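Treating backbone geometry as a discrete language has practical consequences that deserve illustration. Part of our work consisted of pairing the sequence of a single chain with a tokenised description of its backbone. We regard such an encoding as a compact summary of how the chain folds. The amino acid sequence and the backbone structure tokens for this protein are reproduced below.
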Amino acid sequence: MAERKPGAASRRTTPKGGRTTPKGGQHTPVGRPSSATESGRYTPPIPRDQKVSPMWVPVLMFTLLGLGVLVIILNYVNLLPGDASNGYLLLGLLLITGGFVTATSYH
């Protein structure tokens, strides 16, 4: 390791033993002075509206997913009327897709 000459400029970005962030852990944006009224603590924003899904959304979601899996399994073991066909598989996949689409609107 190379020795530093006395009087040479230090390459440290912060003074030795100094902090990289203010005590509260928040940086002051460049160009904006820190005001005396700001505290160092983080206060989360107050939610304006808490979105809550009605009870029918998760019921519909699990019903569609369950029916889709059930149709595919019943088609596999030949318990549905007619021959095992791609129509039943497509119906099962569409029901499962409907369950996933319903899940995206669940809050």
Summary: The chain has two helices and no strands. The radius of gyration is 31 Å. The chain has a mean pLDDT of 79.
